[in-house]
Structure formats: C-alpha cells, structure tokens
Amino acid sequence: MSKPIVAIVGRPNVGKSTLFNYIGKSRTSIVEDMPGVTRDRIYMDAEWLGRKFTMIDTGGIEFDTNDKILTAMRNQAKLAIAEADVIMFVVDGKAGLTSADQEVAVILRNTRKPVLLVVNKVDNMKNEAETYEFYNLGLGDPIAISATNALNIGDMLDRLIENLPEEHVDTEDNDQIKVAVIGRPNVGKSSLVNAIIGEDRVIVSDIPGTTRDAIDTHFTKDGTPFVLIDTAGMRRKAKIDMPVERYSVIRSLRAVDRCDVVLMVIDAQEGVTEQDKKIAGYAHEAGKASIIVVNKWDLIEKDSKTSLRFTEAIRNELGFMQYSPVLFTSALTKQRVHRVTELIKYVADQHAMRVATSVLNQVIEDAVAINPPPSDRGRRLKIYFATQPDVKPPTFIFFVNNPEIMHFSYLRFLENKLREAFGFEGTPLKLVVRGRK
Ligand code: GDP
Ligand code: GDP
Fold first, then answer.
1. Is 185 in the pocket of ligand 2 (CB under 6 A)?
2. In the beta sheet, which residues pair with residue 327?
C-alpha cells in the first residue's frame, strides 16, 4: 500500500528542515535496524495518531536548472501540486510576509489539494498576532508553530491528518512481481522497458485508485507474471516538457512504495547521482529488493577491468546497498537485456525467502563460536534464540539477555553470516533485537 505524501514547501531558512526533522523523530520505521543511509534526507516516514505518511522536504530536491531561489520555489510548489496529497506551506513569522511567499501562494491557490499554511518561528504564542498578515495569502487560517521550541506541532499534525486522503488498499494480484524502474531522465528507462517486454506481449492497464495517471505494464516472461509500476512516461514518451515532471522524485518514491523490486537504472557515462542515492536510500529503508542496472554500456570503452572498476565505484557511492547485484546492459544493442527479468525473479525469490528456525539457529551458534558477542562492564551479550517472523524483507528477531549490549558492528557481523549462509542477494535484511527476562 502506498502511503500518502505530504510535501513541505517554503523559502530557504523558514525552518522547513527543522520542522521536518522534528516530526520525523517520532517516526516508527525500520531505519534504526538498517543503518548507513545518507544523512541529508529529503523524505521521512512519520506517523501521527496511527496515520502513517511520508514527508518530503521539497527544499532538498535539486532541479535540473541552476535556479534562482524564486524559480526553485515555483518548481517546488508545482512538484507538490503534481504529486503530493497534502501541501504544507511554511512561512516565517519573524520575517513576516514576503513577496516570494505571495508568488508561491498564487501557484498554491490554483490547486484543489489541501494546503496547510504554517507560520513558523512564533516562539511565543502570545505573539500569535504575527500570523494575521498571512491571511492575505488566501490560503485559509494560518497555524502558528515554533519548530525549535516544539510549540503547537500537535495541533498542526491534527490538522494535517484531517486532510490526508482515505486509506486505500491495493487490490493487486500477489503472484505478480512488482517492479519499479527508477532513474534520472535519459538514462534509458523507456528503452530498457521496451527492450525487455517487446510490444507483442504487453497489456497496458490503468490501475484506478492509485496515483493519478499511473500506468502499470503487465507482462509474463517464462511463466512468471511481472508488473512494471507507473510506466506512464516510459511506454509513450512523456509529452510534458517541464523538468519537474520528467523526473519526479515523489513519483519515484510512490512507485518504490508499491513495488517488490527496484530497478535502479544508471547511465554508464554519468555514474551514480545524488538523486539516485536518495531514492536508493529510500528503497533500502523501505525494505525493497533492488538491482543496479548500468545502462548504455555500449558507449564505454572497455578493458578487462572496466566492469570491476564500475562495480567498485558504485559500491562506494551506494554503501548501504552492497547486497544489490550490478548488471551492465545496453538497451540499444540489447546486450544482457534478457538477464534483467531473470535477475528480477531471482532477487524477488531472495526477498521472499524463509529459512528454517533450526538451520538459522545453527548458523548463529556457529557465528557466535567464531566471534564471541560484545560485553559491557563485565556483562556479556547472550543470544538465546533467533527466529524469522517475516519476509519482504527477511526479518530476524534475536532474543538476547540485554539488548543494550548489542553493538552495531556485531549486528553487521551477524548479517554477514546470514548472507554467507543463505545468500539473500539483492535484499536488505531487517534485524531486530529483543530482550528476554
Ligand atoms: P530551511 O532552509 O527552511 O530548511 O530552514 P532551517 O530548518 O534550516 O532553519 C533555518 C534557521 O531557522 C535555523 O537557524 C533554525 O534554527 C531556525 N529556526 C527554525 N525553526 C525555528 C523556530 O521555530 N524559531 C526560531 N526562532 N528559529 C527557528
Ligand atoms: P529515459 O528518459 O530514462 O526513459 O531514457 P530513454 O529510454 O528515453 O533514452 C534516452 C536516450 O538514450 C535515447 O536517445 C535512447 O536512444 C538512448 N539510449 C537508451 N539506452 C541506450 C543504450 O543502452 N545505449 C545507447 N548508446 N543509447 C541509449
């Protein structure tokens, strides 16, 4: 199921990232169990009164043009209108109303999506009158908050969740492997998709109830049914010229939410970009399987070490995705294109793999024998028992005497041992530590 998306829009320095980080702190995600993701995040899973949503700080999204602030803000607002479910427009109560705020408000007034006008830096609620001038923006009642002093945030979140759309459950066929094809414009996503499926076997279908104009492509290969998620812009070349719409981070995140396997397509001549890292980080945290496809391989002059060097460079850039297979393709010459679906099937199986409890505990016992668990002030960690309660991603619970003695590096070691024993290629693992009295 895809979570609703809340986009935060506003001028630089109004406190967007402070607010974003504050709300994100209360999140209940699996981030804690999956360390190593990039720090300057632009998305964050959050929850308030049981409603889950994904927040995007549009201030952190880079657009292709090397923009002036105002252009960047207009792009943020357009992006939010196009892709978000609720828009949080943050202004600065200390600085007061600015002409840039007014320009953005003009754009935001033209959407039917809910816009929450948030006046930040009202550090003392006695000064709530500071918010009155923002009525001029024509975006309804402003809400005064202070992100740094944590004032009124609860009220703001109440208003926010009132505006979230109804939850809907995807009614998709669960036998199908759902694939999100992700990557910057021009890396060859459309060419790859067309090369993979060919025209004859394709049924293009609208899946109602998901993102506006999301078009999924269903096809079967060697008996396995696949769905490529949101191929709207890929099957027929996008008519929309706006750079904002051509590579929508938000659209990509939604596709990742709905998929089992992410195909991260990278242009061999460009390598991994910042945008790629952010989306890859999201996929990792969301527990999705992934494959890194280095396309346009035909354009690279090669010697015997070229692919090795490329793989190393990618592993450096995407440190948290050591588990993802790297495939070198050319959509143009069709080199290794047939391998793409084989690999998707393979990592999807790994992502859904269950191991027997007895074998699991044997592997852990052997690991502990080679490398004893850490100790702290004379107390040594004891692992009593391990179990795998879940798949997609494979999730393991370790019952221990005292979770506080568990060390990140020791968890990493256990993860490596699990991978050595069982593979789990292409999938992140979720490791949970529980105390037992
Ligand atoms: P962004 O550029 O919109 O993401 O803004 P930041 O979150 O980086 O904040 C810009 C500056 O405003 C930082 O120095 C923050 O500490 C400060 N700031 C953020 N929220 C508040 C607030 O509620 N009150 C006050 N006084 N300062 C704040
Ligand atoms: P998308 O924006 O990611 O969907 O990229 P496209 O599939 O539209 O490809 C962008 C451009 O790169 C087009 O001109 C393609 O013909 C070209 N292209 C795509 N894949 C390859 C490849 O493997 N090799 C070469 N040389 N060109 C490619």
1. yes
2. 293
How many angstroms is it from 315 CA to the middle of ligand 2?
Answer: 24
What would the 3-class secondary structure string for the chain be? CCCCEEEEEECCCCCHHHHHHHHHHCCCCCHHHCCCCCCCCCEEEEEECCEEEEEEEHHHCCCCCCCCHHHHHHHHHHHHHHHCCEEEEEEECCCCCCHHHHHHHHHHHCCCCCEEEEEECCCCHHHHHHHHHHHHHCCCCCEECECCCCECHHHHHHHHHHCCCCCCCCCCCCCCEEEEEECCCCCCHHHHHHHHHCCCCCEEEECCCCCCCCEEEEEEECCEEEEEECCHHHHCCCCCCCHHHHCCHHHHHHHHHHCCEEEEEEECCCCCCHHHHHHHHHHHHCCCEEEEEEECHHHCCCCCCHHHHHHHHHHHHCHHHCCCCEEECCCCCCCCHHHHHHHHHHHHHHHCCCCCHHHHHHHHHHHHHHCCCCEECCEECCEEEEEEEECCCCEEEEEECCHHHCCHHHHHHHHHHHHHHHCCCCCCCEEEEEECC
Give the residue among 383, 375, 414 at the shortest CA–CA distance from 400: 383
pTM above 0.80, yes or no: no
- Give the burial class of 40: count Cβ atoms within 10 A of its Cβ; 0-12 exposed, 13-18 middle, 19 or more buried: exposed
Specify whether the CB–CB gap between 146 and 120 falls below 8 A. Answer: yes
Using the predicted structure, report yes or no on whether residue 397 has a pLDDT greater than 80.
Answer: yes
Q: Which residue has the higher pLDDT, 199 or 31?
A: 199
Q: Which atom of ligand 2 is nearest to the CA of 333?
A: 23
Mutate to test the pocket of ligand 2, among 184, 186, 217 (most ligand atoms within 8 A of CB): 186
- Name the average pLDDT for the chain: 84
Tokens of 208: 């109602």
Strand 395-400, strand 383-390: pairing? antiparallel
Q: Is 151 in the pocket of ligand 1 (CB under 6 A)?
A: no
